[in-house]
Design goal:
alpha+beta; five-stranded antiparallel beta sheet; 6 helices
Length: 184
């Protein structure tokens, strides 16, 4: 089995992460892999924010500030603490450009592929990752607070670090459950 196939088959979301985060050379390698995602017309519609250290606390404050007015204290605290679940958070941002042949949604798909390559590369280098999204990804206050332009959107928050503890394997579907042959 080829090493890339093995990495794909062993990929899993790792919710329990601790320090250390990947060093700069490993992060740069993973980001270089992310830049190899399929990208019609070579528009490179992605960008990433790297958040570490005190930035994680500020991200938590931004998450908390984005809570609806009727959020409970427990919900606000959960939002504030969310970024502290890992020593590094990478924000995958779709930054589409106008193009006559490449609609914005196709560019967003390219960003999702880029983020998936990033996660795979980090895991292949021995780090754990968890791609999270949810309400904070679509929140205008969070987007503005992170400096996104009006046309940009968050594809996901990728939590990264060293795997803290092993978890049971996730059952995977049989190929026959999601593949069929079209008879034409």
């Amino acid at each position: 089995m080829h090493s890339i196939t093995k990495a794909l088959l062993n990929r899993s979301s790792e919710p329990r992460l601790k320090a250390p985060a990947p060093p700069e050379d490993v992060l740069d390698l993973a980001l270089a892999c992310a830049a190899r995602a399929p990208d019609h017309a070579l528009l490179r519609p992605w960008r990433y924010l790297v958040i570490e250290g005190a930035g994680l606390e500020r991200l938590g404050e931004l998450f908390e500030a984005s809570a609806p007015a009727d959020a409970s204290d427990t919900q606000r605290e959960k939002l504030r603490k969310a970024p502290l679940r890992a020593p590094m958070v990478l924000v995958a941002i779709a930054s589409p450009t106008e193009h006559p042949k490449v609609p914005a949604y196709e560019q967003e798909y390219a960003v999702a592929a880029s983020a998936a390559y990033l996660v795979l590369a980090l895991q292949a280098e021995g780090y754990g990752a968890m791609w999270r999204s949810g309400e904070v990804s679509d929140n205008d206050q969070v987007c503005r607070g992170l400096g996104l332009a009006e046309h940009e959107s968050i594809v996901g928050f990728i939590y990264v670090g060293t795997v803290d503890s092993e978890k049971p394997p996730v059952p995977r579907p049989e190929i026959s459950e999601f593949v069929s042959r079209w008879p034409g």
